Protein backbone atom coordinates (compact mmCIF):
# COMPACT_ATOMS: atom_id res chain seq x y z
CA UNK A 1 0.00 0.00 0.00
CA UNK A 2 2.81 2.37 0.82
CA UNK A 3 4.19 2.36 -2.65
CA UNK A 4 1.05 4.16 -3.81
CA UNK A 5 1.64 7.03 -1.46
CA UNK A 6 3.91 9.64 -2.91
CA UNK A 7 6.47 11.75 -1.07
CA UNK A 8 4.80 14.57 0.79
CA UNK A 9 1.55 12.70 1.41
CA UNK A 10 0.43 12.08 4.93
CA UNK A 11 -1.89 9.29 5.97
CA UNK A 12 -4.32 10.33 8.65
CA UNK A 13 -5.03 7.29 10.76
CA UNK A 14 -8.40 7.31 12.57
CA UNK A 15 -8.19 7.66 16.35
CA UNK A 16 -9.13 4.03 17.01
CA UNK A 17 -5.96 2.85 15.22
CA UNK A 18 -3.09 2.58 17.60
CA UNK A 19 0.56 2.05 16.86
CA UNK A 20 1.12 -1.61 16.24
CA UNK A 21 -2.36 -2.14 14.85
CA UNK A 22 -2.23 -4.65 11.98
CA UNK A 23 -3.91 -2.06 9.78
CA UNK A 24 -0.99 0.30 10.12
CA UNK A 25 1.42 0.58 7.23
CA UNK A 26 4.82 -1.01 7.66
CA UNK A 27 7.56 1.23 8.93
CA UNK A 28 10.26 2.80 6.90
CA UNK A 29 13.73 1.63 7.84
CA UNK A 30 17.17 3.06 7.56
CA UNK A 31 18.22 3.15 3.94
CA UNK A 32 14.80 2.68 2.40
CA UNK A 33 13.37 4.82 -0.32
CA UNK A 34 11.82 7.94 1.13
CA UNK A 35 8.08 7.73 1.48
CA UNK A 36 5.66 9.03 3.95
CA UNK A 37 3.77 6.67 6.22
CA UNK A 38 2.05 8.44 9.02
CA UNK A 39 -0.45 8.36 11.84
CA UNK A 40 -2.23 10.79 14.10
CA UNK A 41 1.00 10.90 16.07
CA UNK A 42 3.04 11.87 13.08
CA UNK A 43 0.46 14.39 12.05
CA UNK A 44 0.66 15.89 15.51
CA UNK A 45 4.42 15.82 15.17
CA UNK A 46 4.06 18.06 12.18
CA UNK A 47 1.44 20.18 13.78
CA UNK A 48 2.63 20.48 17.31
CA UNK A 49 6.22 21.53 17.01
CA UNK A 50 5.66 23.57 13.90
CA UNK A 51 2.70 25.33 15.21
CA UNK A 52 3.10 25.52 18.91
CA UNK A 53 6.81 25.91 19.21
CA UNK A 54 7.89 27.51 15.98
CA UNK A 55 5.24 29.81 14.71
CA UNK A 56 3.88 30.64 18.12
CA UNK A 57 7.38 31.05 19.46
CA UNK A 58 8.19 33.22 16.54
CA UNK A 59 5.13 35.42 16.79
CA UNK A 60 4.60 35.61 20.50
CA UNK A 61 8.12 36.51 21.41
CA UNK A 62 9.12 33.54 23.52
CA UNK A 63 12.67 34.19 22.47
CA UNK A 64 14.62 37.22 21.67
CA UNK A 65 13.56 36.93 18.04
CA UNK A 66 10.05 38.32 18.23
CA UNK A 67 10.85 41.62 19.71
CA UNK A 68 12.56 42.42 16.45
CA UNK A 69 9.35 42.32 14.44
CA UNK A 70 6.38 43.00 16.71
CA UNK A 71 3.03 42.72 14.97
CA UNK A 72 -0.17 44.42 16.12
CA UNK A 73 -3.77 43.31 15.82
CA UNK A 74 -4.25 42.13 12.27
CA UNK A 75 -4.19 39.43 9.66
CA UNK A 76 -1.77 37.61 7.36
CA UNK A 77 -1.77 37.50 3.59
CA UNK A 78 -1.22 33.78 3.33
CA UNK A 79 -0.78 32.01 0.02
CA UNK A 80 -1.85 28.64 1.32
CA UNK A 81 -3.67 25.89 -0.54
CA UNK A 82 -5.28 22.63 0.41
CA UNK A 83 -4.92 19.67 -1.89
CA UNK A 84 -7.07 16.63 -2.61
CA UNK A 85 -7.75 14.08 0.07
CA UNK A 86 -7.97 10.47 -1.02
CA UNK A 87 -9.07 7.27 0.67
CA UNK A 88 -6.54 4.49 0.15
CA UNK A 89 -7.61 0.91 -0.63
CA UNK A 90 -7.05 0.18 3.04
CA UNK A 91 -9.58 2.87 4.02
CA UNK A 92 -7.07 5.40 5.26
CA UNK A 93 -7.44 9.09 4.58
CA UNK A 94 -4.33 10.36 2.79
CA UNK A 95 -3.51 13.97 2.15
CA UNK A 96 -0.53 16.30 2.12
CA UNK A 97 0.91 17.42 5.43
CA UNK A 98 0.10 21.08 4.83
CA UNK A 99 -3.51 20.31 3.86
CA UNK A 100 -3.89 18.38 7.05
CA UNK A 101 -2.43 21.25 9.03
CA UNK A 102 -4.65 23.91 7.47
CA UNK A 103 -7.76 21.81 8.08
CA UNK A 104 -7.15 21.55 11.83
CA UNK A 105 -9.38 23.81 13.90
CA UNK A 106 -6.46 24.28 16.31
CA UNK A 107 -4.40 25.75 13.50
CA UNK A 108 -7.06 28.31 12.68
CA UNK A 109 -7.70 29.23 16.30
CA UNK A 110 -3.97 29.58 16.89
CA UNK A 111 -3.51 31.76 13.84
CA UNK A 112 -6.21 34.09 15.16
CA UNK A 113 -4.56 34.17 18.58
CA UNK A 114 -1.25 35.21 17.10
CA UNK A 115 -2.84 37.82 14.82
CA UNK A 116 -1.97 35.79 11.73
CA UNK A 117 -5.43 34.83 10.57
CA UNK A 118 -5.57 34.26 6.83
CA UNK A 119 -7.36 37.06 4.92
CA UNK A 120 -9.10 34.53 2.68
CA UNK A 121 -12.04 32.33 3.67
CA UNK A 122 -11.57 28.53 3.82
CA UNK A 123 -13.36 28.12 0.49
CA UNK A 124 -10.41 29.89 -1.15
CA UNK A 125 -7.77 27.87 0.69
CA UNK A 126 -9.46 24.57 -0.14
CA UNK A 127 -10.80 25.53 -3.56
CA UNK A 128 -10.47 22.93 -6.33
CA UNK A 129 -8.77 25.31 -8.78
CA UNK A 130 -5.39 26.69 -7.75
CA UNK A 131 -5.47 29.64 -10.19
CA UNK A 132 -8.83 30.83 -8.89
CA UNK A 133 -7.68 30.41 -5.29
CA UNK A 134 -4.54 32.44 -5.96
CA UNK A 135 -6.57 35.22 -7.60
CA UNK A 136 -8.87 35.34 -4.58
CA UNK A 137 -5.99 35.26 -2.07
CA UNK A 138 -4.67 38.40 -3.78
CA UNK A 139 -8.12 39.97 -3.81
CA UNK A 140 -8.85 39.25 -0.15
CA UNK A 141 -5.35 40.46 0.76
CA UNK A 142 -6.08 43.76 -0.96
CA UNK A 143 -9.51 44.11 0.66
CA UNK A 144 -7.86 43.78 4.08
CA UNK A 145 -4.66 45.54 3.02
CA UNK A 146 -4.46 47.86 6.04
CA UNK A 147 -4.81 44.94 8.45
CA UNK A 148 -2.11 42.74 6.92
CA UNK A 149 0.95 42.42 9.17
CA UNK A 150 2.81 39.64 7.43
CA UNK A 151 2.93 37.92 4.07
CA UNK A 152 3.40 34.17 4.14
CA UNK A 153 3.63 31.03 2.09
CA UNK A 154 5.17 27.67 2.99
CA UNK A 155 7.87 27.92 0.33
CA UNK A 156 9.40 31.00 -1.34
CA UNK A 157 8.42 29.58 -4.72
CA UNK A 158 4.70 30.21 -4.11
CA UNK A 159 5.39 33.75 -2.87
CA UNK A 160 7.25 34.63 -6.06
CA UNK A 161 4.65 32.90 -8.17
CA UNK A 162 1.87 34.87 -6.42
CA UNK A 163 3.43 38.25 -7.19
CA UNK A 164 4.31 37.25 -10.75
CA UNK A 165 0.61 36.51 -11.15
CA UNK A 166 -0.24 39.82 -9.50
CA UNK A 167 1.73 41.60 -12.24
CA UNK A 168 -0.66 40.06 -14.76
CA UNK A 169 -4.00 40.39 -12.98
CA UNK A 170 -3.69 43.62 -10.96
CA UNK A 171 -6.03 45.58 -13.22
CA UNK A 172 -8.73 42.91 -12.93
CA UNK A 173 -8.32 43.00 -9.16
CA UNK A 174 -8.73 46.79 -9.15
CA UNK A 175 -11.89 46.48 -11.26
CA UNK A 176 -13.36 43.89 -8.88
CA UNK A 177 -12.70 46.15 -5.88
CA UNK A 178 -14.00 49.25 -7.63
CA UNK A 179 -17.31 47.64 -8.67
CA UNK A 180 -17.68 45.16 -5.83
CA UNK A 181 -18.21 42.39 -8.40
CA UNK A 182 -15.99 39.33 -8.58
CA UNK A 183 -14.34 38.62 -11.93
CA UNK A 184 -16.09 36.09 -14.17
CA UNK A 185 -12.80 34.18 -14.21
CA UNK A 186 -13.72 32.84 -10.77
CA UNK A 187 -16.23 30.15 -11.59
CA UNK A 188 -16.12 27.78 -8.61
CA UNK A 189 -19.49 28.40 -6.86
CA UNK A 190 -18.19 27.91 -3.29
CA UNK A 191 -15.30 30.38 -3.85
CA UNK A 192 -17.60 32.90 -5.56
CA UNK A 193 -20.12 32.76 -2.75
CA UNK A 194 -17.55 33.13 0.03
CA UNK A 195 -15.57 35.95 -1.62
CA UNK A 196 -18.67 37.83 -2.74
CA UNK A 197 -19.66 38.11 0.93
CA UNK A 198 -16.58 40.20 1.71
CA UNK A 199 -16.27 42.11 -1.57
CA UNK A 200 -18.02 45.49 -1.47
CA UNK A 201 -17.64 48.36 -3.98
CA UNK A 202 -14.69 50.47 -2.82
CA UNK A 203 -13.65 52.94 -5.56
CA UNK A 204 -11.18 54.75 -3.25
CA UNK A 205 -9.27 51.58 -2.45
CA UNK A 206 -9.27 50.55 -6.13
CA UNK A 207 -7.98 53.97 -7.12
CA UNK A 208 -5.26 53.92 -4.48
CA UNK A 209 -4.07 50.44 -5.56
CA UNK A 210 -4.09 51.55 -9.20
CA UNK A 211 -2.09 54.68 -8.43
CA UNK A 212 0.48 52.76 -6.38
CA UNK A 213 0.90 50.06 -9.03
CA UNK A 214 1.55 52.45 -11.87
CA UNK A 215 3.99 54.37 -9.64
CA UNK A 216 6.19 51.31 -9.09
CA UNK A 217 9.32 50.73 -11.09
CA UNK A 218 9.25 47.18 -12.49
CA UNK A 219 7.21 46.11 -9.42
CA UNK A 220 10.07 46.83 -7.02
CA UNK A 221 8.66 46.98 -3.46
CA UNK A 222 5.10 46.03 -4.46
CA UNK A 223 4.54 44.28 -1.11
CA UNK A 224 5.20 47.25 1.22
CA UNK A 225 3.52 49.62 -1.26
CA UNK A 226 0.22 47.75 -1.20
CA UNK A 227 0.43 46.29 2.30
CA UNK A 228 1.86 49.26 4.21
CA UNK A 229 1.58 47.62 7.64
CA UNK A 230 3.36 44.40 6.67
CA UNK A 231 6.39 43.88 8.89
CA UNK A 232 8.02 40.98 7.07
CA UNK A 233 7.71 38.29 4.41
CA UNK A 234 7.84 34.77 5.77
CA UNK A 235 8.34 31.31 4.22
CA UNK A 236 11.01 28.64 3.65
CA UNK A 237 13.76 30.37 1.72
CA UNK A 238 16.76 28.07 2.07
CA UNK A 239 17.85 25.01 0.09
CA UNK A 240 16.06 24.64 -3.24
CA UNK A 241 14.22 27.91 -2.54
CA UNK A 242 17.37 30.05 -2.70
CA UNK A 243 17.08 30.68 -6.45
CA UNK A 244 13.84 32.61 -5.77
CA UNK A 245 15.40 34.99 -3.21
CA UNK A 246 16.49 37.63 -5.67
CA UNK A 247 13.02 38.03 -7.11
CA UNK A 248 11.42 37.89 -3.68
CA UNK A 249 13.73 40.65 -2.40
CA UNK A 250 12.69 42.72 -5.40
CA UNK A 251 9.01 42.39 -4.51
CA UNK A 252 9.65 42.85 -0.77
CA UNK A 253 11.66 46.09 -1.15
CA UNK A 254 12.81 47.16 2.30
CA UNK A 255 10.85 44.47 4.16
CA UNK A 256 12.88 41.75 5.84
CA UNK A 257 12.66 38.22 4.48
CA UNK A 258 12.38 35.69 7.28
CA UNK A 259 13.13 32.11 6.46
CA UNK A 260 10.62 29.80 8.12
CA UNK A 261 11.56 26.60 9.89
CA UNK A 262 13.04 23.38 8.66
CA UNK A 263 10.46 20.65 8.54
CA UNK A 264 9.13 17.81 6.49
CA UNK A 265 5.95 15.80 6.19
CA UNK A 266 7.76 13.15 8.20
CA UNK A 267 8.33 15.42 11.19
CA UNK A 268 9.42 18.90 12.21
CA UNK A 269 13.14 19.29 12.44
CA UNK A 270 14.35 22.71 13.47
CA UNK A 271 13.41 26.32 14.21
CA UNK A 272 14.98 29.46 12.83
CA UNK A 273 15.81 31.13 16.11
CA UNK A 274 17.70 34.04 14.57
CA UNK A 275 15.11 35.41 12.15
CA UNK A 276 16.92 38.70 11.61
CA UNK A 277 19.64 36.87 9.69
CA UNK A 278 19.34 36.97 5.90
CA UNK A 279 18.01 33.63 4.60
CA UNK A 280 21.43 32.68 3.15
CA UNK A 281 22.86 32.61 6.71
CA UNK A 282 19.96 30.99 8.52
CA UNK A 283 20.48 27.96 10.74
CA UNK A 284 17.86 25.75 12.37
CA UNK A 285 17.97 24.68 16.02
CA UNK A 286 16.78 21.07 16.16
CA UNK A 287 13.53 20.44 18.10
CA UNK A 288 14.65 17.56 20.28
CA UNK A 289 11.05 16.73 21.21
CA UNK A 290 9.89 15.99 17.64
CA UNK A 291 11.44 12.57 17.57
CA UNK A 292 14.72 10.79 18.08
CA UNK A 293 17.38 12.32 15.86
CA UNK A 294 20.50 10.67 14.52
CA UNK A 295 23.04 12.04 12.09
CA UNK A 296 25.09 10.07 9.56
CA UNK A 297 28.56 11.67 9.35
CA UNK A 298 29.52 12.35 5.75
CA UNK A 299 33.22 12.66 4.91
CA UNK A 300 34.75 13.89 1.70
CA UNK A 301 37.07 11.39 0.04
CA UNK A 302 40.76 12.34 0.19
CA UNK A 303 41.67 14.97 -2.39
CA UNK A 304 38.15 16.40 -2.64
CA UNK A 305 38.20 18.33 0.64
CA UNK A 306 38.29 21.71 -1.01
CA UNK A 307 35.39 21.09 -3.33
CA UNK A 308 31.97 22.59 -2.82
CA UNK A 309 30.32 20.69 0.01
CA UNK A 310 27.61 19.32 -2.22
CA UNK A 311 29.60 18.12 -5.16
CA UNK A 312 31.06 14.89 -3.92
CA UNK A 313 30.32 11.33 -3.22
CA UNK A 314 30.41 11.09 0.58
CA UNK A 315 31.91 8.35 2.71
CA UNK A 316 29.47 7.49 5.51
CA UNK A 317 30.23 6.44 9.09
CA UNK A 318 27.93 5.12 11.81
CA UNK A 319 25.13 7.49 12.86
CA UNK A 320 25.74 9.68 15.93
CA UNK A 321 23.25 11.18 18.39
CA UNK A 322 21.93 14.72 18.63
CA UNK A 323 24.52 15.94 21.11
CA UNK A 324 27.44 14.08 19.52
CA UNK A 325 27.58 16.03 16.28
CA UNK A 326 30.60 18.26 15.67
CA UNK A 327 30.60 21.89 14.57
CA UNK A 328 31.64 22.32 10.94
CA UNK A 329 30.88 18.69 10.01
CA UNK A 330 28.36 17.52 7.44
CA UNK A 331 25.62 14.94 8.11
CA UNK A 332 22.52 13.33 6.72
CA UNK A 333 19.51 13.61 9.04
CA UNK A 334 17.82 10.43 10.32
CA UNK A 335 14.60 10.60 12.33
CA UNK A 336 12.62 8.13 14.43
CA UNK A 337 9.17 9.52 15.18
CA UNK A 338 6.31 8.88 17.56
CA UNK A 339 4.27 8.23 14.41
CA UNK A 340 6.24 5.08 13.68
CA UNK A 341 9.03 6.02 11.30
CA UNK A 342 12.07 4.07 12.40
CA UNK A 343 15.53 5.46 11.61
CA UNK A 344 14.13 7.20 8.57
CA UNK A 345 16.66 8.87 6.27
CA UNK A 346 15.39 12.26 5.27
CA UNK A 347 17.84 12.53 2.38
CA UNK A 348 18.83 16.06 3.45
CA UNK A 349 22.46 17.12 3.92
CA UNK A 350 23.08 19.58 6.74
CA UNK A 351 26.15 21.21 8.28
CA UNK A 352 26.41 21.78 12.03
CA UNK A 353 26.93 25.52 12.46
CA UNK A 354 26.87 25.62 16.28
CA UNK A 355 24.74 24.75 19.28
CA UNK A 356 21.76 26.42 20.88
CA UNK A 357 22.08 25.22 24.48
CA UNK A 358 22.62 21.51 23.82
CA UNK A 359 20.78 21.19 20.56
CA UNK A 360 22.64 21.57 17.27
CA UNK A 361 21.98 24.42 14.89
CA UNK A 362 21.88 23.09 11.33
CA UNK A 363 22.63 24.84 8.10
CA UNK A 364 20.65 23.24 5.27
CA UNK A 365 23.01 22.28 2.43
CA UNK A 366 20.94 20.35 -0.12
CA UNK A 367 19.01 17.19 -0.89
CA UNK A 368 21.36 14.26 -0.96
CA UNK A 369 20.15 12.70 -4.18
CA UNK A 370 22.47 13.22 -7.07
CA UNK A 371 20.92 15.07 -9.91
CA UNK A 372 23.34 14.98 -12.78
CA UNK A 373 25.61 12.02 -13.48
CA UNK A 374 26.71 10.32 -16.70
CA UNK A 375 29.82 8.39 -15.77
CA UNK A 376 32.28 9.43 -13.03
CA UNK A 377 30.79 12.94 -12.73
CA UNK A 378 28.52 13.75 -9.81
CA UNK A 379 26.63 17.02 -9.47
CA UNK A 380 23.91 17.74 -6.94
CA UNK A 381 21.07 20.23 -7.00
CA UNK A 382 23.32 22.69 -5.18
CA UNK A 383 26.00 22.41 -7.89
CA UNK A 384 23.34 22.98 -10.51
CA UNK A 385 22.03 26.00 -8.60
CA UNK A 386 25.54 27.50 -8.37
CA UNK A 387 26.19 26.92 -12.09
CA UNK A 388 22.87 28.51 -13.03
CA UNK A 389 23.58 31.49 -10.74
CA UNK A 390 26.98 31.96 -12.37
CA UNK A 391 25.62 31.84 -15.93
CA UNK A 392 22.60 33.94 -14.92
CA UNK A 393 24.97 36.85 -14.19
CA UNK A 394 25.48 37.18 -17.95
CA UNK A 395 21.78 38.00 -18.33
CA UNK A 396 21.89 40.89 -15.87
CA UNK A 397 23.39 43.29 -18.43
CA UNK A 398 20.31 42.68 -20.59
CA UNK A 399 18.01 43.12 -17.56
CA UNK A 400 16.77 39.56 -17.92
CA UNK A 401 16.01 37.00 -15.26
CA UNK A 402 15.76 33.24 -15.08
CA UNK A 403 12.15 32.58 -14.08
CA UNK A 404 12.92 28.94 -13.26
CA UNK A 405 15.18 26.09 -14.35
CA UNK A 406 15.57 22.35 -14.42
CA UNK A 407 17.90 19.77 -15.94
CA UNK A 408 18.06 16.38 -17.64
CA UNK A 409 20.78 13.93 -18.61
CA UNK A 410 20.62 13.06 -22.30
CA UNK A 411 22.01 9.54 -22.59
CA UNK A 412 20.33 8.51 -25.84
CA UNK A 413 23.25 9.98 -27.78
CA UNK A 414 26.88 8.95 -27.33
CA UNK A 415 28.55 10.57 -25.45
CA UNK A 416 25.78 11.67 -23.09
CA UNK A 417 25.41 15.32 -22.10
CA UNK A 418 23.80 17.63 -19.55
CA UNK A 419 20.74 19.53 -20.76
CA UNK A 420 19.74 22.62 -18.79
CA UNK A 421 16.30 24.15 -19.32
CA UNK A 422 15.69 27.85 -18.65
CA UNK A 423 12.51 29.86 -18.72
CA UNK A 424 13.45 33.54 -19.06
CA UNK A 425 11.55 36.71 -18.16
CA UNK A 426 11.97 37.94 -21.75
CA UNK A 427 13.86 37.17 -24.97
CA UNK A 428 17.66 37.21 -24.83
CA UNK A 429 20.09 37.72 -27.70
CA UNK A 430 21.69 34.73 -29.40
CA UNK A 431 25.17 35.86 -28.38
CA UNK A 432 24.32 36.08 -24.71
CA UNK A 433 22.64 32.68 -24.70
CA UNK A 434 25.63 31.09 -26.41
CA UNK A 435 27.88 32.58 -23.73
CA UNK A 436 25.48 31.30 -21.06
CA UNK A 437 25.77 27.73 -22.44
CA UNK A 438 29.58 27.99 -22.26
CA UNK A 439 29.48 29.51 -18.81
CA UNK A 440 27.18 26.75 -17.51
CA UNK A 441 29.50 24.08 -18.90
CA UNK A 442 32.52 25.63 -17.18
CA UNK A 443 30.65 26.27 -13.93
CA UNK A 444 30.32 22.53 -13.15
CA UNK A 445 33.64 22.22 -11.36
CA UNK A 446 33.28 18.62 -10.19
CA UNK A 447 36.55 16.89 -11.12
CA UNK A 448 34.71 13.96 -12.73
CA UNK A 449 32.77 16.32 -14.99
CA UNK A 450 35.73 18.51 -15.97
CA UNK A 451 37.90 15.45 -16.71
CA UNK A 452 35.16 13.76 -18.75
CA UNK A 453 34.48 16.92 -20.73
CA UNK A 454 38.18 17.31 -21.55
CA UNK A 455 38.46 13.80 -22.90
CA UNK A 456 34.98 14.04 -24.48
CA UNK A 457 33.38 11.14 -22.64
CA UNK A 458 30.70 13.70 -21.81
CA UNK A 459 29.41 15.80 -24.70
CA UNK A 460 28.91 19.59 -24.84
CA UNK A 461 26.32 20.89 -22.40
CA UNK A 462 23.08 21.97 -24.06
CA UNK A 463 21.07 24.98 -22.90
CA UNK A 464 17.40 24.84 -23.96
CA UNK A 465 15.21 27.94 -23.73
CA UNK A 466 11.56 27.42 -22.84
CA UNK A 467 8.41 29.35 -23.69
CA UNK A 468 7.00 31.57 -20.96
CA UNK A 469 4.59 29.63 -18.76
CA UNK A 470 6.32 26.24 -19.08
CA UNK A 471 6.95 25.90 -15.35
CA UNK A 472 3.35 26.91 -14.67
CA UNK A 473 2.34 23.97 -16.87
CA UNK A 474 4.62 21.67 -14.85
CA UNK A 475 3.03 22.98 -11.64
CA UNK A 476 -0.45 22.31 -13.06
CA UNK A 477 0.61 18.78 -13.95
CA UNK A 478 1.91 18.23 -10.41
CA UNK A 479 -1.42 19.49 -9.02
CA UNK A 480 -3.37 17.19 -11.35
CA UNK A 481 -1.60 14.28 -9.62
CA UNK A 482 -2.95 15.41 -6.25
CA UNK A 483 0.08 17.43 -5.13
CA UNK A 484 -0.25 20.59 -3.05
CA UNK A 485 0.94 23.99 -4.20
CA UNK A 486 1.99 24.66 -0.62
CA UNK A 487 4.55 21.85 -0.88
CA UNK A 488 5.60 22.30 -4.49
CA UNK A 489 9.33 22.37 -5.25
CA UNK A 490 10.35 22.68 -8.88
CA UNK A 491 12.07 19.40 -9.86
CA UNK A 492 15.66 20.42 -10.53
CA UNK A 493 16.32 17.18 -12.36
CA UNK A 494 13.90 15.34 -14.61
CA UNK A 495 14.15 11.59 -14.49
CA UNK A 496 13.97 9.90 -17.94
CA UNK A 497 10.94 7.97 -16.70
CA UNK A 498 9.06 11.19 -16.10
CA UNK A 499 7.74 11.16 -19.65
CA UNK A 500 4.97 13.67 -19.06
CA UNK A 501 7.29 16.41 -17.73
CA UNK A 502 9.81 15.68 -20.49
CA UNK A 503 7.02 16.07 -23.04
CA UNK A 504 6.06 19.44 -21.54
CA UNK A 505 9.70 20.56 -21.68
CA UNK A 506 10.28 19.37 -25.21
CA UNK A 507 6.99 20.84 -26.51
CA UNK A 508 7.91 24.22 -25.05
CA UNK A 509 11.56 24.38 -26.12
CA UNK A 510 12.06 27.31 -28.47
CA UNK A 511 15.85 27.43 -28.88
CA UNK A 512 18.86 25.32 -28.08
CA UNK A 513 22.54 26.21 -27.64
CA UNK A 514 25.49 23.81 -27.35
CA UNK A 515 28.54 24.80 -25.35
CA UNK A 516 31.83 25.25 -27.15
CA UNK A 517 33.71 25.80 -23.89
CA UNK A 518 35.82 22.65 -24.28
CA UNK A 519 36.19 23.00 -28.06
CA UNK A 520 33.77 22.03 -30.81
P1 LIG B 1 7.88 17.73 2.11
O1 LIG B 1 8.30 16.41 1.61
O2 LIG B 1 6.97 18.42 1.12
O3 LIG B 1 7.36 17.70 3.47
O4 LIG B 1 9.21 18.62 2.12
C1 LIG B 1 10.21 18.35 3.07
C2 LIG B 1 11.54 18.67 2.47
O5 LIG B 1 11.59 20.06 2.11
C3 LIG B 1 12.69 18.50 3.45
O6 LIG B 1 13.14 17.16 3.55
C4 LIG B 1 13.75 19.40 2.83
O7 LIG B 1 14.41 18.77 1.76
C5 LIG B 1 12.89 20.56 2.31
N1 LIG B 1 12.84 21.62 3.35
C6 LIG B 1 11.95 21.78 4.34
N2 LIG B 1 12.25 22.85 5.09
C7 LIG B 1 13.36 23.39 4.57
C8 LIG B 1 14.17 24.51 4.89
N3 LIG B 1 13.88 25.33 5.89
N4 LIG B 1 15.25 24.74 4.11
C9 LIG B 1 15.55 23.95 3.07
N5 LIG B 1 14.82 22.89 2.71
C10 LIG B 1 13.74 22.60 3.44
From TrEMBL:
Any single GO CC term annotated in Swiss-Prot or TrEMBL for this entry: cytoplasm
Any Pfam family hit: GH3_C
GO molecular function annotation: acid-amino acid ligase activity
InterPro entries cross-referenced by the UniProt entry: GH3, GH3_C, GH3_M
Start and end residues of each GH3 C-terminal domain: 382-495
Record has Secreted as a keyword: no
Key words, A-Z: Ligase
GH3 middle domain segment(s): 284-367
Family: Belongs to the IAA-amido conjugating enzyme family.
Protein name according to UniProt: Jasmonic acid-amido synthetase JAR1
Naturally occurring in which organism (per UniProt): Panicum virgatum
Amino acid sequence: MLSHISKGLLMVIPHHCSLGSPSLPCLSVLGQHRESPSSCHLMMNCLRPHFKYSRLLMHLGTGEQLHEYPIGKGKALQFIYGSKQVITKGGILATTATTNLYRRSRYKEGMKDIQSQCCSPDEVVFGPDFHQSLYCHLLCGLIYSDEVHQVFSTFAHSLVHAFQTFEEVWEDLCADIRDGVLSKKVTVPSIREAVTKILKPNPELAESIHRKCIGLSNWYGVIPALWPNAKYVYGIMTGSMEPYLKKLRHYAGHLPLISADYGASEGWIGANINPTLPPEQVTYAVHPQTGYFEFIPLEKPKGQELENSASIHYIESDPVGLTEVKIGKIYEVVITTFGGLYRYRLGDIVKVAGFHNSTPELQFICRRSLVLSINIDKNTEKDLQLAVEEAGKLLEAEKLEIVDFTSFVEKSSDPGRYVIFWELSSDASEDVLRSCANCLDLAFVDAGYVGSRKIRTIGPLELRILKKGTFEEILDYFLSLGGAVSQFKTPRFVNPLNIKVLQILSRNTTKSYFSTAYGL
